[in-house]
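pasting for ref. prot 1 ->
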Amino acid sequence: MLISSFGFAQNSSEELVSNVSTSSTVTAPESVATTNSKISLKTGFATYYARKFEGRKTTSGIRYRGKKLTAAHLTLPFGTIVTVTNLENGKTVDVVVNDRGPHSKKYMIDLSEAAAVQLGFFKKGQSRVEISYQLPEDES
């Protein structure tokens, strides 16, 4: 399993302790969903993989590649496409879940380096984000 790891100290402010502040589920319009499904929205903190994990196998068996738009999530099925929005600048990226993590209660999703770059928080270590994803009715 991969675990995000940075070479800097993390702030233990109250903002970091409360990683998931909102959660909601809305029914997807029929024109968007071909199956009976719901879109889930969650807000919290994201971080990204350290470079030392480049080339290592993820929990799904796929090798981690920092240039790919991938993510780790504790519960979402592998292959789930997650839209991640940086709440500090409004930038958005779609990533595919292919690993388990993050293994810290402070974060709800670990992103690849490429995803962190597109979201504009690479080298900052973390960002407040909103994630949205769609699961079939029987999996949500």
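and prot 2 ->
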Amino acid sequence: KQYAALVAAEGATLEFTAEGVREIARVAGKANERMENIGARRLHTVLTALLEEVLFELPDYPTKRIVFDAPQVRERLQKILEDEDLRRYIL
């Protein structure tokens, strides 16, 4: 809800499909398995990594309705999950 409110302040909407939410949870769970298990705090770091580019580019973003589904979540987080050093730094 915090990210949705932040996006709304720029006149846009942020939505996640049910599959997108499940994928975020899967990624957070996998990261907790591979690294230190920090529980739900991992969700915050995963969401931050997922939304960083969108939030930065939001004023110039081509659409004001931003929807994340499972493929988009995987695409945006894939490099982080595959790169051990980057994963430790970001997640």
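The longest helix spans residues 18-34.
The longest strand covers residues 13-16.
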